[in-house]
């Protein structure tokens, strides 16, 4: 069975952060994707991860080292991350579902 640390660009520390956040397999990482996995680590980990972890997750899923993620891709990832976090915060702020049919 392939371990998280076996993926290119991930090591024991990255693997530990992922496992602590409940992402304990390569299959789960692939299912969640880099951005959702990064956010889960941010929420559940004892250590606030840097964006380098996000880049490492993308690189691991794409089979390349995180240093090879081009600058333009990094900007796109940051924008996706911010958008995802804004949406998540918006949905968490509602205690009850919105009634869109109420005039």
TrEMBL record:
<dbReference type="Pfam" id="PF04994">
    <property type="entry name" value="TfoX_C"/>
</dbReference>
<dbReference type="InterPro" id="IPR047525">
    <property type="entry name" value="TfoX-like"/>
</dbReference>
<feature type="domain" description="TfoX C-terminal">
    <location>
        <begin position="2"/>
        <end position="79"/>
    </location>
</feature>
<dbReference type="InterPro" id="IPR007077">
    <property type="entry name" value="TfoX_C"/>
</dbReference>
<protein>
    <submittedName>
        <fullName>TfoX/Sxy family protein</fullName>
    </submittedName>
</protein>
């Amino acid at each position: 069975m392939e371990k998280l640390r076996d993926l290119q660009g991930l090591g024991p520390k990255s693997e530990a952060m992922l496992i602590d956040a409940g992402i304990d397999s390569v299959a789960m990482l692939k299912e969640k994707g880099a951005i959702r996995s990064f956010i889960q680590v941010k929420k559940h980990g004892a250590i606030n991860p840097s964006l380098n972890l996000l880049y490492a997750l993308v690189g691991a899923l794409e089979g390349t080292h995180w240093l090879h993620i081009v600058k333009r891709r990094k900007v796109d990832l940051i924008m996706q991350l911010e958008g995802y976090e804004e949406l998540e915060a918006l949905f968490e702020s509602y205690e009850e579902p919105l009634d869109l049919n109420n005039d």
